[in-house]
Amino acid sequence: MSTINRGAFPHRHLLGIEGLSADEITMLLDLSDGYVEQNRQKDKKRSVLRGLTVINVFFETSTRTRTSFELAGKRLGADVINISPDASAIKKGETLIDTAMTLNAMHPDVLTVRHADSGAVHLLSEKVACAVINAGDGSHEHPTQALLDALTIRRRLGRLHGLTVAICGDILHSRVARSNIHLLNTMGARVRVVAPPTLLPMHIERLGVEVFNDMREGIADCDIVMMLRLQTERMQGSFVPSTREYFHFFGLDAGKLSAARPDALIMHPGPMNRGVEIDSLVADDISRSLIHEQVEMGVAVRMACLDLLTRDALANEYESEAETRQ
Hints:
Blueprint: H1 22-39, E1 53-58, H2 64-75, E2 79-83, H3 96-104, E3 110-115, H4 120-125, E4 131-137, H5 143-157, E5 164-168, H6 175-186, E6 190-194, E7 210-212, H7 215-219, E8 224-227, H8 243-250, H9 254-257, E9 265-267, H10 280-283, H11 291-309, H12 311-325
Parallel strand pairs: 1-2, 1-3, 3-4, 5-6, 5-8, 6-7, 8-9
Helix pairs in contact: 1-5, 1-11, 2-11, 5-6, 5-11
């Protein structure tokens, strides 16, 4: 885990997968691999981030992402503070920029931010002096989710290059879909998106994907079937006639899954709506479902991101201590 030199990852922030090279993605995945093994030991804690402060700022509620970022920071020895939507001064009328300036005055080393508006995390990153990690912004990107998905696939199948991955469901509102499309294309996978026309962004094919409106046709001969949650909280108007009809045509069940490869693996970023986008028998099939592995990989990936993005901060701290002693 310590073999990656300072400066090897040239980005100050992690705002998205778009713009990362295959080598940079591989670096993050390789580092994450080491943290998977650490997290399986009885003594999970290290002092990699001792003396540093991580603030998790979640303007949208979250269970998996926020908890895994909190665990990641604590297992690396950082001081971790969580700010929830109800505790945010934005509820009292404070602007995002004022919030950024307030947090910046506290001299954190990393801000992990989730926000309902696309681009909000990028804006905040321009106003602070520390590293910023995008934990999901609107329907734009969710980079650590794509990284943990990639790590899950790579650990099970040994590669990403050459695989055929079908991303199915609410593509229109999904930041997970966008980040996965960027990552999988960069790493040499073949990407399909499967959804009703109402849940597909305009010109989605420009992102380098094949587009299908039929579930069985879309997942035919796929190695990975990645299901997405119907994000009704982002929908204004009617995008599907009913959840029952949606499941009939686009929900993953054993019948539709039979069109994929016999050994095809199943993924879902969670939370799952059972009986809407995925059938329980499929979701709980321990031989094919990677859903629980995805959750485990999330902590390791977020540890790797915190580690890489703080290496310059730690190096500067050590240099300052050395100058003081002199």
